[in-house]
Write a structure and sequence with these properties.
alpha+beta, 6-stranded mixed sheet
Length: about 170
Amino acid sequence: MPLSRGYFRAVFLMIALMTNIVSCASNTPDEKEVLESRIHGAITRAWNDGDIEALDDIYDANFIRHRPPFDDYTGLRLHKERVRLIRSAYPDHKTIIHDVIIDGDMVALWYTWKGTHTGEGLSLAPTGKRVSVPGCDVYKIVDGMIVEEWDHEGFLSLYQQLGYTVTPPEPQ
């Protein structure tokens, strides 16, 4: 059964609260608008248009990315390579940003990315299947740049849409 938009909004808000989105710092409406525009612009240009260098506008060169269940990594160079790999596996990749919440030095971005798995960019053989994957990123901002990111995506949903199945363990 597909999960509702309301479910994902609730999860998005829960993740935002669990990662200390509620802070004592405040932003003026103008500061929030500028930051949201910069984040939205860089993400859209990089992921949707393939302008990977747009990430320089918002990511610190040494930022840290946490992406369970995968290993963390450090550095914008590695992040750009990751974006290139995903875009080559899903050449028609589009990220739709649903909501942005900014409070002090923390930002939460709720999105869905869609694409057709026709490329060789990742370790999975192309399936030709169209996918739609919900996600939420939480960013720590210092001096207007993302220095740390917690990425939460529907990886189980992605693999199921590609045709993979989950096999329960054998009873002990």
